Amino acid sequence: MRLVADNISLSRGERRLIAGLSFAVEAGEALVLTGPNGVGKTTLLRALAGFIPPDAGVIRLEGSGDDDSLVGECAHYVGHANGVKPGLTVRENAQFWVRFLNGDVRAVDDTFDMLHLADLAEVPAGYLSAGQKRRLGLTRLLLAKRPIWLLDEPTAALDVASQALLAGLMQQHLDGGGMLIAATHGPLGLSNARILELAAPEPGEVHAHSEVL
Amino acid sequence: MRAFFALLSRDLRLSVREGSALGAALGFYLIVVAMLPLGLGPDMALLSRIAPGLLWLALLLSALLTLGRLFETDLEDGSLEVMATASLPLEMIVLAKGLAHWLSTALPLTLLAPVLGLMLNLDFAAYPLLMLTMLIGTPAISFIGTIGAALTLRSRRGSLLIALLVLPLYVPTLIFGIGAIASLLGPGGSGPSLMILAAISLGALVLGPIAAAAALRAQLA
Q1: Do A52 and B221 touch (CB under 8 A)?
Q2: pLDDT at site B145
Q3: Where would you tag: which of A193, B11, B79, B203 has the fewest CB atoms within 10 A of its CB?
């Protein structure tokens, strides 16, 4: 399986953020998006998830067996908001995702153990701290297996121990043949991640991106 | 279908737990109907004649109050992004949310209507038909409402815009809802009006989710 972005251009409102960007992510590979604030990291992730249609170019998934399978349906998107319902308990949030995303109900307790949420399982999610909410949001990645993880600032609000935990989970996902695309400012703790540094496109310039291996 | 019912039961659970929206709608319905006789004067015959219309109109306005929250919380807490990457089509997601709105808001309002009918001296013969028209007609309120809620999702003062967008679309439901009751009390049967009312609801059930899903896709971009 291979995620390909072919010559895509993206804009936010009237402003062109990304012009003529091409890259491919193979199974087991991680791509880390870096660059200054407002350069279009979130926009690119949202486009990969299928929320924003590109102005030009195509985003496609090759070798998934089903030619018209949407990237979004094979991907988990964890954005700035975690998708956590404050009115439901931690367990109810997780159980909803499992049923909604066709995951395995038995995985809930294991996942809670793994992310140190077991003690909080019956607490309404509205009472959680920002870091705990983020950990709960990240359980989605494990509750339903999907090959592509799209993570926007995954380490935001996480303490050092949780960051290491997340790094382990990401490595496990990659070792299992998953793909990972993350936008971040800090280090993710991945051993062999490719870095794609985004830069603001110059007016009239098409290839404004440098890919560093 | 598992995903559909998961969403439906989550929304119902949330509406029970965060009962403020339903409480506000029921309270609004009660207050509007209680104030109408004060404005119209103590003419029992007049009240009795216009009671079905007043009950229907007040129900529309009460339901309107709750529409703004339909997708707003899901947008704010990121649930909408989770839903958009689900294998369940966005149209079915809107259908589940519309159904949850109908069960948690429109149905309780309908059940309150006969109690409020007492305050307006509604003819006793009209009670069963009032309930029937509301049961048949309120799905249109919820599903037309999903369109307005989805379109105004990101706009400030969205709730005011919803009213402007959605109230004109409620006109046919209002006309045939009241028409069915009026034709029972006057000459002629109420069958045709009820059937048109059902047709409007079924149309809204199909078209509402399609239009609202398209609007939600645009809001996510």
Answers
A1: yes
A2: 93
A3: B203
